[in-house]
UniProtKB/TrEMBL annotation:
Assigned keywords, A-Z: Membrane, Transmembrane, Transmembrane helix
Protein's name in the database: DUF3169 family protein
The keyword Transmembrane helix appears for this protein: yes
Transmembrane segments: 40-59, 79-101
Tree of life domain: Bacteria
Organism: Roseburia yibonii
Amino acid sequence: MIDEERVKQMTKMAIYEEGEGKQYVPMTQYFRHDYVGKEMVKSVILGTFAFALFVVIYLSCEMENLMENINSIDLVGFVTGILVKYGIFMAAYLLVTYVVYNVRYSVGRKHVKQFYTHVKKVNKIYEQEEK
């Protein structure tokens, strides 16, 4: 005979696994600091790429001005300015990354705990049926 409660719990589990579970379950394979650290490494790479892209776009827009003043430009000051801006950009970007992925991890853990509550209920139902 079919147990309605078991079917309800299993349906909730299947819906979760197909929806939110795809996003949250993989993060449970990591401790919080490992998960956030992995995402911060990705952010360093992507942030560097994005900043380089901004610099290339800026330089291409200012190419005429740069060519006119090529001999009078303080190259050390120019590069130092870019590096300072890169440092500020990366600090802000990594701070945002840290906060976002800490919050995502906390929310994800709560959702996964709810999922495991359904798993425990199904296991109890199976144990009761075996007896």
